[in-house]
Amino acid sequence: MESSEYKHVVLSLIFLKFASDKFVARREEMIAAGQGDYLEMKEFYNMQNVFYLSEEARWSYVMANAKQDDVALKIDQALAKIERNNPALKGALPDNYFTRLGLDAAKLAALLDTINNIDTIAGGGEEDVVGRVYEYFLGRFAAAEGKGGGEFYTPKSIVNLLAEMIEPYSGKIYDPRCGSGGMFVQSLKFVDKHRGDKKNISVYGQEYTATTRKLAKMNLAVRGISANLGDGHL
Asked: Which ranges carry the N6 adenine-specific DNA methyltransferase N-terminal domain (predicted)?
């Protein structure tokens, strides 16, 4: 598999694991608080910036079927259910991607086992843990493959400098070629660093390449950043 495809496979699975880990943590929190009657109500998850996952969309369900020949279909169905139950993710997750790739079931199962060992919310800094994984994959793969395809990855140091220069304490942030959303991530990190309020920031962007736009939406979603990235038509 080409690296351009591999990053979508890995990042999609990490997103699924992360979303499920946060869901389970919130579910256990509700049970401990005596809110067992509300475990299937989306609102009680969304209010804590947690995506609601139906049973077939949870990581535990995928892992229970990891050794089955149709595991790719199970993953696609899980991602579709997450997107359907969470309007904020509309157009962000792959559509029948794993089934179309025709991956070797044994190798996919091995990858699932590896990702299953990652505690995405260890220490309570979940956005940073998963965010660093995203930054690594997006940076390494984009730098290696981008120039050949006519796309160029902006180095993180340049993005950091831009964020420091514009000082985005409030108002709108717009990036007409947002790629995987690095400018938005660093801008919101700037706000956190200077103890500002992220609620005072509105994020807007455009990205022509559909798969990159999906990565941007996932990248922002794992950090709890709401953004309007349009439909991709420039």
From this structure: 1-113
